[in-house]
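RECORD TYPE: inverse folding
INPUT: structure tokens
STRUCTURE:
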């Protein structure tokens, strides 16, 4: 397995204008042990064509010997708005060109949709999943023609449980379509067993994100968050220094034959650079230990 960095770890700096796409690549290439970088479409500059920026990024990636493990596409499938649904598909299909410029064989889709007010309280999940699967199948078919795999992340409140992610993958039913798994999302958002989720989805994993947290039965202070009502509390931690069982996750994936990239997707807001450096080193060590065990 390869060690990667998801650009999301720099989100605070990116949104505050302290760094840009090229700055993220430069830091990962110069200051970490990562093999791969994962850019997000939301972080391109607004004043230049995305594909021109992707070519510039590709040059810097090659300079530092970094591969692009995945290209994350922001999406809103807007399943109750036909025009917005078609616009979403058109945008994602165009971004396959960007993925090719970045020379990646993987894109990540978020299973996200805006909902009208009448659906927000008791959403019709059968309709939402069916309509979303229709769009994702179209993207997966276009991606397959380019040798690109598609992974959906178990992300957010609407479609982030083991059951719903599984249903969506089954509905899309394409050989190049699977799960960009973020194991601890199952636990910290929905209170589900993230190791069991990893076992369930391991054969369908296309790319991996790892976060880390401290876990506790009760909040120590107001920096802790309760997972679900009456459930445990969590707090982000430097990657590899919290309570998340990274070795267990990687071991399950290894045993299932996964040999792709595992990307760090956690940083500490008071020391982003330092926590990313440490997190990458811990992740690389954990992968090496799992593969030799």
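DESIGNED SEQUENCE:
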């Amino acid at each position: 397995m390869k060690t990667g960095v998801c650009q999301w770890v720099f989100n605070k700096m990116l949104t505050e204008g302290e760094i840009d796409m090229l700055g993220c690549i430069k830091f990962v290439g110069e200051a970490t042990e990562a093999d791969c970088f994962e850019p997000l479409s939301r972080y391109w500059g607004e004043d230049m064509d995305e594909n021109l920026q992707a070519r510039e990024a590709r040059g810097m990636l090659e300079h530092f010997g970094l591969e692009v493990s995945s290209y994350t596409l922001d999406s809103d499938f807007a399943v109750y708005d036909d025009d917005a649904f078609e616009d979403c598909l058109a945008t994602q299909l165009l971004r396959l060109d960007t993925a090719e410029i970045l020379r990646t064989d993987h894109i990540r889709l978020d299973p996200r949709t805006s909902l009208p007010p009448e659906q927000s309280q008791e959403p019709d999940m059968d309709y939402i999943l069916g309509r979303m699967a229709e769009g994702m199948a179209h993207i997966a078919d276009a991606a397959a023609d380019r040798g690109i795999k598609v992974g959906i992340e178990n992300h957010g409140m609407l479609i982030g449980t083991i059951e719903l992610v599984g249903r969506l993958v089954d509905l899309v039913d394409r050989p190049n379509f699977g799960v960009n798994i973020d194991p601890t999302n199952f636990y910290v958002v929905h209170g589900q067993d993230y190791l069991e989720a990893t076992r369930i989805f391991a054969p369908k994993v296309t790319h991996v994100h790892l976060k880390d947290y401290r876990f506790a039965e009760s909040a120590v202070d107001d920096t802790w968050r309760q997972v679900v009502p009456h459930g445990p509390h969590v707090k982000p931690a430097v990657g590899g220094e919290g309570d998340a069982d990274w070795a267990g996750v990687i071991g399950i994936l290894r045993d299932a034959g996964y040999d792709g990239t595992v990307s760090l997707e956690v940083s500490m807001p008071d020391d982003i650079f330092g926590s990313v450096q440490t997190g990458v080193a811990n992740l690389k060590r954990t992968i090496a230990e799992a593969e030799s065990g």
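NOTES: The chain has a mean pLDDT of 96.
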